[in-house]
Structures are given as C-alpha cells and as structure tokens.
Amino acid sequence: MEHVIEECGDPRSIPRDLLYLADPSDEMLNAYVDVSFAFVCRIDREIVGALLMMPTRPFTVEIMNISVRESYWNQGIGRKLIQGAVKKARETGMRKVEIGTGNPGVVQMLLYQKCGFRITGVEFDYFRRCCAEKIIENGIECRDMIRMEMRLDEETQKEG
Asked: Does the global pTM surpass 0.85?
C-alpha cells in the first residue's frame, strides 16, 4: 500500500472523526480549521492521516492537529505529514514551525523530536483551562501542554 501525501485545498473535507483523534473539541477545531493549510495521507483513496497547520505570528506557523488512524500507526505517516508541512512552511518563507502536545504524549514527543523539533516550554494546566472535560491519555490526565519548535533558519544553516 502506497502512502500518498498531498496538500488538501479544503480542510473541511477531512473527516471529523479523524481530526477528533488529536483534538476532540468542536470548539477548538472550528477555531483553526478554516485558516489552516491541510495535508492528508491517502491509501487507496481513503484519508488515513491528516495535518492542519496555521500561521500564528509573522514568519511562524503552528501544527494544530496531526492525526493518523490507529490501524495505520507505525508506518511513517506522521513523519511524512510533518515533512510535507515543514516543506510548505519553508516554501512560504516561514522561519519557525511550532507544535504542542499533552504531557502524556510521550510517543508524540518522540516523533516530533525525531523530526527536528525541540522542547521550548510548558504551559501548565493548559488543558484544564481550555477543555470542559478531563482528557485522559495513557491512563494520565492531560493537564499541561508541552511546547516544541523547529527553527527553519537553523535547519537551513545546517544543511548549507
């Protein structure tokens, strides 16, 4: 099965159940879905992974949602989605890509670090402040947002 990563012109065409895997809040999704660049991974025309990324500040974009259906985990789809997003960020003149994940998201943090992201901070009690219901991941309450970034100007210097 070949994974096809492509930019998606209409983020609203991505199945909501897939986006809910990373962000179960309609309120949060609705706040960024219309202003995001979207990438999808298709296998036999089925969307099995998605990534939404939006501009947040001058020369900065943030990956707001990255989701892969569980039956397709550990096949490199998340990494390929991130690579597509980083390539788009570079092409549009961005200098930094940011991403955040919940404190129980050890697997996600490992993936992001393997892709070149570095931990820059923690927003304590982020999920308690912005989510009406508790989120439990891996048997741990998701309370804090771990913030990470990739500086594209540093990456370019390393490559050059």
From this structure: yes
